Known about the structure:
Chain A is an alpha/beta fold. Chain A contains 14 helices and 8 strands.
Amino acid sequence: MVSASQALAPASRASSVLGTDLSEQSLRRYLNGLPRVDVIGANARAGHFQTRSLKTETKRQGLDLAIRMVDLTTLEGADTPGKVRSLVSHAIHTDPLDHSAPSVAAVCVYGDMVGHAVEALGDKHVSKDPSGISVAAVATAFPSGRASMKVKLLDTEDAVAAGADEIDMVIDRGAFLSGRLGEVFDQIVRVKEACKRPDGSYAHLKVILETGELATLDNVRVASQLAILAGADFIKTSTGKVQPAATLPVSVVMLEAVRDWYLATGEFVGYKPAGGIRAAKDALRYLVAVAEIAGEQWLDPHLFRFGASSLLNDLVMQRQKMTTGHYSGPDYVSVD
Amino acid sequence: MSFLDYSPAPESTSILKLQKQYGLFIDGKFQGSRGKSFATISPATEKTITKVVEATSADVDKAVKAARVAYDKVWSRMPGSERAKYLFRIARIIQERSRELAVAETLDNGKPIKETRDFDIPTAAAWFFYYAGWADKLEFATGGATPQSHGVIGQVIPWNFPLMMLAWKVAPALAAGNTVVLKPAETTPLTALLFAEICQEADLPSGVVNIITGAGKTGQALVEHRGIDKVAFTGSTRVGRQIAKSLAGRSTALTLELGGKGANIVFDDAPIDEAIEGIVSGIFFNQGHVCCAGSRLLVQENVHDEVLSKLTRRIETLRLGDPLDKNTDIGAINSKRQLDTITEIANSGEVEGASRWSSSCDIPSKGFWFPPTVFTGVQASHRIAQEEIFGPVLSVLTFRTPAEAIEKANNTPYGLSAGVWTEKASRMLSVVDKLQAGVVWANTFNKFDPTSPFGGYQESGYGREGGVAGLLAYLKTPIRTGGRK
């Protein structure tokens, strides 16, 4: 248990939201005061988005939007600088047959690959071109998060120093499930501080809840609020290493959390479902959920991302179908 | 173009092959009539779909006679297991022709295709499947007493769920061994006529099901016909009362499923986001043309503002327009007459001092439409809190304690439905127990299942449809002669 004096330090904002001093107890009382989630109702709401029918112009618009919001990801033990260069090239030229196809939002890699990704992006890196591509790094002993705080912070600082624009951290699910909410809060706050660059700016922080390990939608709602309160720029469902990863019912709850935060404070927090979204059709359903729950402002790479790898090619194939009128097949898109 | 301006995604009507004119379905075939023909129109476009005939009292007589012959000679003598086969066959044909039926229902009624496709037609099929299973097991419903059917049943159904209401009436009646003469509503005869074709396709013996179209006069001739053994009516309380009067002093059995003014009670510990969905489905499902609609929202005072701001925000995302478009949430009002009624009562709300809020959605120029509307500051004495509006109009009242919520919820001459939203199980059980309503939904709303009885208290009618209770309504009250062996 973290003592209140040292742990919940740079948190004046959270304190003003709670309307009291920040302590393990006040935090728990606030989070337990959130409305509960009725699972059957949340599933029904998710089912509703699956019945929306997106045709013609809306489908075309949705496919382009979805491509622009992909965090093209490779998180394998076997990753090499060559593989990352290949991923970067795919991120820039998403459709080898049509260079008018939009680029993705970011490439997402392990910390040691950040330098290679930045170098491969060259002029297309967001630091050179504001409409360019960002580099996101997973950090904090991804995917399990089982390491000392010292290691997690070093992991983060290292990636930021190498040029990462965005950090995807994992929460300590063990601490969350055993009720040590203050500890989870504190870790997020400290990782956020580790995202600070020498010039005073911050790398964007995405907080992965690993909803597949949180077991209930009530927990998802509480963890979402906790992460937002601790300063997350984005809340993200999953590492992709645990099943189930992103689902629509979980997305309903997390989107309600970012919407409610916006309605209460006027601040925008982003949302990133990750893992398990492979078909363009599924991606379009997510866009519908985002637009109908949170609002159309969230249909923007600054506020919504897909964490995915194979999804991009299906989006591109569907886009080719819309443009040319026929399916091209998997040989007409690049494999990574 | 904004992403949320979804491009049109209309369901094709090409699957629907309609006749230019329909006769009456009597004794297994479509027959002509001396009655005058009238158009059935699509309320979304005001265009004529097809023409049907207004059955005369001579036609009613012919239909009742055909049903009597079929009852005496065929249906009442047939073993239950054989009746079951026909009902199963009808259920399967409804499923096979579901897309066609969904399109027909949406055209004729004005309700969104997503509702006919995902709710009306599947529920109709489910009702036939369920009661098909009962046809050879009637003694288990009567507790061992010999089951006795009534004979010929006269059934009059409303326009809000045309095929589903038909299924609710016809399936248990046939399973119990009765034959029927059914009159669909004047404005929505289409799916009942397609159902007549389904009866032919299923080789149902002639005269077991007879469908006669027409308006109130035809309905009156049917329910007052001396050859009818039981009347089953779903519709307005006003007409239900007339029927009860005209049958007084006769041995004709009667069940009535009438109006409602359901209370949807939201406590401060409710799952708020799901409660919002339940409120929306409770009053805007089927444009509020639902007898069990949650048309009175009772919300605990301390969460009133939060619930209302979330609710209005949610209502703004509802899409009103072409019912055949797969993305439409709110369709057309079924008729000009109904639109006038809704408009008149809604206007009284403003006059009596409640505040009106309506969705800013665009209203099509042709057809009959009413935007989703919410009244706040409603007092229990206002007309909009008392009368059934049967449209997309929600009246919001507040309460402070569970006792006050129960008192206000029960303060109605009706008693068909209610909903309760709370995450506290003990409160749920104690409140549900004290509500005078035939069906109470806990943390959900508008859920239907063939195994579950449905019906009302007080002016919402008597008798139950669905489940074993719904089956017993089509059997004579058993006289027990001894214990069950």
